[in-house]
Amino acid sequence: MATRFVNIENKLPASTALYYPAIAGGLSVTIGHFLKNMLYHTIGLFGNKGAREKASFTLQYPEVMRPLPRRLRTRHRIKVHEDGRPKCTACMLCETACPDFCIYITPSEHDDSPEEKAPLEFQIDLDRCCFCGFCVEACPKDAIHMDTQIMETSSDRRENMVLRLQDLVDPGPVVVSGPEFAGKDMHKVLPHLGMRKLDHIKPRRIDLSYRERQATEQGS
Amino acid sequence: MITLNVNGQEVRVEPGTKVIEACKQVGEVVPHFCYHPGLSVAGNCRMCMVEIEERGRTRVDVACVAVASEGMVVKTESEGVEDARRGVMEFLLLNHPIDCPYCDCAGECKLQDYYMEWGDTDAGSRRMTLPVRKPKRQEIGPNVMLDSERCVMCTRCVRFCEEVTGTNELGMRERGSHNVLHLEEGKTLDNPYAGNVVDICPVGALTDRDFRFNRRVWFLKKQDSICPGCSRGCNTEIHFDLKREYKRHEESKRVHRLKPRYNEQVNGWWMCDEGRYGYHGIDRDRLTWPMLRSGDTLGPADWDLAMEAVSSELAHFVKHPESLGVMLHPDMSNEALCAAGVFFGDTLRAGYMDYGFEGEPYGEDDELLKKADRHPNRKGAELLGLHRGSQPKGQMLNALREGNLRALVVFRWDLPSLLGEETEQLLSQLRYLLVLDTHNRQWPGKALHVLPTAVYAEQAGSFTNFEGRVQAFGKAFEPTGEARDEVEILVELSRRMNLKGGVLGGNNIQQRLKDRLPGYGEIQAPGRSVIHVSKEAAPR
Predict the structure, then answer these.
(1) Binning pLDDT at 50, 70 and 90, where does residue B195 land?
(2) Chain A closest CA to B223's CA: distance in Å?
(3) Distance (Å, rounded) from C-alpha B123 to C-alpha B522?
(4) I need a labelling partner for B185 at 20 to 30 A (CA). Which of A187, B77, B202, B338 fits?
(5) Residue B197 DSSP code
(6) How far is B136 from chain A (nearest CA, A)?
C-alpha cells in the first residue's frame, strides 16, 4: 500500500481560528470562580454559615473522607440474625457466581439453627475480588452486602487481604490510613489534626420513588 | 412386537411395555418421581401424565402404569397434560419448605427441575394456609439423613427396602398433607445397601450423611469407573472436584462420592455401601514420594535417583533370576499386571511370581452384589497366567520360608499381615526388597526402595471381574504427589535396564492382553468404554 499525502485545509471559521477570545473567555470563568470563592470565604470568616456552605473547599484525604454514594459497591459484610448468627447458610451460590473465584466457604452442619447448614469459615480474598457485586445478586438469603463504605483495603501482606467470617460479620469502624493513624477511628483522629468534620456535606440522596414513577409512566 | 406412535414417531416395543419406557425409546423423557425401572410400579406421584389416544378415545393418563398397545397415539406435550402437571406441582409444592439454599439435593433435584418448567411462581402469594411442618434432620441410619418436609411421598425408598434388600425398614404413615415417611418400629436403615435410597430419592428428603454439605453437586466432575471393592466390579461414577485447588482444602479431598452407574449385566442400578464409602482411601494417607533407605530410615528421593537405584539393584538378579520373587496384587489393573508379567516373568525370568497368598483376608458373599473376594482383578491375573515357580498357587511364600528367595518385589501387599510374627526373621535373609505401594504403611525394616504408585482413580485401565468380564475404567485425575502409574514405572525400569528380552512398551502389553483376555480387544478407546455394557447412566 502506497503512502498518500493529503493536504487538509484548515476550514475553521475565522472567529475560532483567532483563539484569543476563547482564552479570555476561559480565564474569565476561572477568575470568576476565584473571586466568588474568595468573597464567600471572607464573608464566612465573619460567621455567616450560609456563605461558608456555598464556598468550594479541599478535602484533606485520607484524613478526611468525603461521604460516598450509598449505592457504591464497597467492602463486603455478612448480615446477622438477631441472635448474632450469620444469615449465610453456606449455599455456595456466591462462590458459584463469583467470576474471580475469590470466595471460599467451608460449610458445616449446624445443630442449633433451623437452617441446619452454616459456614464454618467464609473467606473473601480481596486481592482477587473485582467488586462486581455478583455475590450480592446471587445470595438467596440476602446475607451478603457490599455497603460498608470501606474502600481502603490495601495491605502490605497478601494474607491480610483475606477477609474471614469474623471480619465480614463485624466490619469494624472506618479507619484512616497512613502510618501514624493506622488502626485509629477517623472521627477520633480529626480533632488532633486541627480539622473540623465537614458535616454539611450530606450523602447524595437516592430517589427511591424513581422506580415507582417509571412504572406508573409506563402503565399510563 | 407392537407399534405405537409417540409425538409423531413410530416406536416398536415388546407387548407389556409401559408407555413411559416406549417414550424413552424415542428420547422423550416423561417427567416422573415415583417410577424407577429397577422397582415395581407404584403410580402414585401422578407426574408422568401423557395424552393417550386409544381406540378412538383420548384420555390423559399416567405413563408409568399405562401399557402400550397396538395403534396407540401418545402425546407427551398437550394442553391437558400441561394442566395436569401444573396441578401436580402445585400440590407437591404446597407444603414443600423450599429450603434449596441448604438442601444438598439442589442442582440434581427433580422437584427443582420440574418447578422451573411447570411450577407456579405465584403460588406462594395465593396460599391460604400455613404449610404443614414435619420433622427435619432425622438420622434414620448410619449413612442416611431424612428430612420429612422435603419428601414427595414417591415411596421409591420404601419399595427399595421391600423389593431389593427385603429388609422393610421404611414405611408410609398418615394421609394427605400429613403423609410421612417413617422408620419401622425398632429398626434403623442400616442394611448394607442403604446408600442406594439416597440415589433413588428424587428430591432432597434422603441425603447422604457422608457427602452432606461437602460440596455442591454442580462443582463435581464425573468419570466412569469400576468399583475396586470386590470381584463383582460394579460400574460406578467417581464424582470429584479439583476446581478449588488454588487453596488447599482442609482435607485436600478430591473425590467426594461414588455413584452407581447402570449396567444390567453386572450391578443393575445399585451398589453396596462398603464400595460406596470405600473411596476415602484415594485421598487419605497416600504415599507421595519414592523412598530410599539409608541406614535405619527411609527418606524421600526424586524419581531419577530412585529408578537408578532400583535398576542397579535388580541388575544383580539378571543372571540368577531364580531367587527373585514377585508378589503381584489383585487390586492392580489388567494393564499393570500384564506389564509386570512381561517384565518380571518373561524378560527378567523371575523364579517365583504369584497374585494370591495364604492368609489374606476374605469377606463373605451376599445374595445381591457383594463377593467374598474383596479384590477386583484376581480373575484377570488368573487369565493372564501370572503364576510362576515350583510352589503351587497361593503358596509362594513357602519359598521364602524354605530360604529359596534372595529378593522380593512386593506390589501393594502388607507383608506383616501375611507373614505374621515371622516377618522380620524371614525378611532378614533377603538381599533386596522392593515395594511398590499406594499408601503409607509400616514397611518392614528390610525394604530398601519404596515407589509410590497410582490408585485406580488416577489411572486408566481395566479390571476383569469374577465371571471374566473385562471392564474399563477411566482416569479421573493425575496421581497424587509424585506417585506414578505402575505401567509407567515398569516401562521406565525396562528402558533403563535394557535387557535382552527387549524393552517393555505399550504395544506388547496391549497385544498380550488381547491374546490372553477374551473380550479385551473389544474395548474401544481404552479407559472409557466397557464391553457388552450399556452406557446409559443410572436414572435418578
Answers:
(1) very high
(2) 21
(3) 54
(4) B202
(5) H
(6) 9
Give the chain B residue whose CA is nearest to the CA of A143: B101
Of A89, A104, A141, the CB nearest to B247: A104
CB neighbours of residue A108 within 10 Å: 13
CB contact under 8 A, A96 and B216: yes
Segment among A91-95, A172-176, B378-382, B487-491 with least mean pLDDT = A172-176
pLDDT of residue B522: 72
Given strand B255-260, what is the order of strands in its sheet? B221-226, B235-240, B255-260
* Residue B201 to residue B204: CA distance in whole angstroms: 7
Tell me if chain B has a CB within 8 Å of the CB of A56: no
From CA A43, how far away is CA A55, in angstroms rounded? 10
A99 interfaces chain B, CB cutoff of 8 Å? no
Domain A77-219 has CATH 1.20.120.140: no
Q: For residue B427, which of B307, B293, B311 has the smallest C-alpha distance? A: B293
On whether any CB of chain A is under 8 Å from the CB of B247, the answer is: yes
Tell me which chain B residues have a C-beta less than 8 angstroms from the C-beta of A109.
212-213
SS3 A147: coil
Strand B449-452 with B432-437, pairing: parallel
Closest Cα of chain A to B99: distance in Å? 8
Q: Can you tell me the distance from the alpha carbon of B321 to that of B336, in angstroms, rounded to the nearest whole number?
A: 21
Q: Is B514 on the interface with A (CB under 8 A)?
A: no
Given a contact cutoff of 8 angstroms between Cβ atoms, the answer to whether B436 and B451 are in contact is yes
A108 vs B101, B213, B218: nearest CB: B213
Show me where the domains of chain A are located. 18-54, 77-219
Q: Does B101 touch chain A (CB under 8 A)?
A: yes
Q: Does ipTM come in above 0.85?
A: no
pLDDT of residue B52: 95
What amino acid is encoded at A100 in this protein? Answer: D
Between B224 and B126, the higher pLDDT residue: B224
Would the CB atoms of A91 and B106 count as touching at under 8 Å? yes
| A111 contacts: CB under 8 Å, gap ≥ 6 | none
First to last CA, chain B: 28
Q: Do B99 and A106 touch (CB under 8 A)?
A: no
Q: Are B244 and A101 a contacting pair at CB < 8 A?
A: yes
Hey, is the C-beta of A214 within 8 angstroms of any chain B C-beta? Answer: no
pTM, entire model: 0.83
Which residue blocks in A55-174 are alpha helix, DSSP H?
A: 93-97, 134-138, 165-169
- Asked which of A61-70, A103-112, B30-39, B415-424 is least confident by mean pLDDT, the reply is A61-70
Sign of dihedral through CA atoms B424, B426, B432, B433? negative
Cβ contacts of residue A113 below 8 Å, gap of 6+?
A: A85
Is omega for the bond preceding B192 within 30 degrees of 0, making it cis? no
Give the Cβ contact number of residue A62 at 10 Å. 13
Q: Shortest CA distance to B10 belongs to which of A8, B22, B110?
A: B22
Residue B376 — very low, low, confident or very high, per pLDDT cuts 50/70/90?
A: very high
Q: Compute and round to an integer the Cα radius of gyration of chain B.
A: 28
Q: Hey, is the C-beta of B500 within 8 angstroms of any chain A C-beta?
A: no
Contact B433, B448 (CB under 8 A): yes
Closest residue in chain B to residue A107, using alpha carbons only: B213
Of A170-179, B23-32, B437-446, which gets the smallest average pLDDT? Answer: A170-179
Give the nearest chain B residue to A92 (CA atoms): B216
